[in-house]
Write a structure and sequence with these properties.
alpha/beta; TIM Barrel; nine-stranded mixed sheet; 22% strand; globular; binds iron/sulfur cluster
Length: 236
């Protein structure tokens, strides 16, 4: 048994992936605890803020994979999410799961590069736009791409709240034109559990109009499917 050194906020599923390149695919979520960012609109603070640390559990790769197998019963795509899962030692979990036919997708803001990114099947890099209050370190972001190499299917996902975020996404798309890009209207609610579906729909429509009027036909505009279905409820 390896060390219990992976901080876990929650493991749940099977459900569907609600965002990005593998939207709609059945998956089990492994949500790690802890993040090096503090985005103003973070909707998973319970997996970020040390105030919730007492709810996190230190687990070994074998324990996590055991729980995933219990839930999934047969191989499927495991989504490694957070917080920022890139700050956890996830390599043994990925190696173990892959031996049993499981596939792994990871989403991170691209602020920490790990050499085990190359062993993933899907890597979603989600740099945070200006409305998050965070600043992207593009050198580290480039390191993430370098360490992933040709291993996973890599794409960009950018959350958009306003014109500044949209301009940021356009710049990123120009810089990384070889990567597919998914734009996602921001989920702006305080507290985040209370979803304003009308406001979300309006932002989605605004974004679609912008992309079309700019003839930005390489972009895909996607909602957060799970938020449409279940709001910001945990564990679905
Ligand atoms: S990077 Fe993600 S998990 Fe971390 S604070 Fe920002 S939105 Fe929350």
């Amino acid at each position: 048994m390896s060390e219990k050194n992976i901080r876990i906020s929650e493991i749940f599923g099977p459900t569907i992936q609600g965002e990005g390149a593998v939207i709609g695919q059945p998956t089990v979520f492994v949500r790690t605890g802890g993040c090096d960012y503090r985005c103003t609109w973070c909707d998973t603070l319970y997996a970020v803020d040390s105030e919730y640390r007492h709810q996190w559990q230190a687990m070994s790769a074998e324990e996590i994979f055991g729980r995933v197998q219990e839930l999934a019963k047969k191989p499927l795509m495991v989504t490694l999410s957070g917080g920022n899962p890139a700050i956890q030692p996830l390599s043994p979990l990925i190696t173990l799961g892959k031996k049993h036919g499981y596939r792994f997708a990871l989403e991170t803001q691209g602020s920490v590069a790990q050499d085990w990114f190359s062993n993933l099947d899907v890597l979603t890099l989600s740099p945070k736009p200006p409305s998050s209050g965070m600043k992207t370190d593009w050198d580290v972001f480039n390191d993430c791409l370098k360490t992933a190499g040709e291993g996973p299917k890599t794409s960009l996902k950018i959350i958009i709240f306003d014109e500044n975020d949209y301009a940021y996404a356009k710049e990123a798309a120009e810089k990384y034109s070889h990567l597919p890009i998914y734009l996602q209207p921001g989920n702006h609610t305080t507290p985040p559990q209370n979803i304003d579906k009308d406001a979300l729909n309006e932002r989605m429509q605004w974004l679609i109009e912008k992309v079309n009027s700019d003839q930005w036909f390489e972009a895909s505009v996607l909602p957060q499917l799970h938020v449409m279905l279940w709001g910001n409820e945990r564990g679905v």
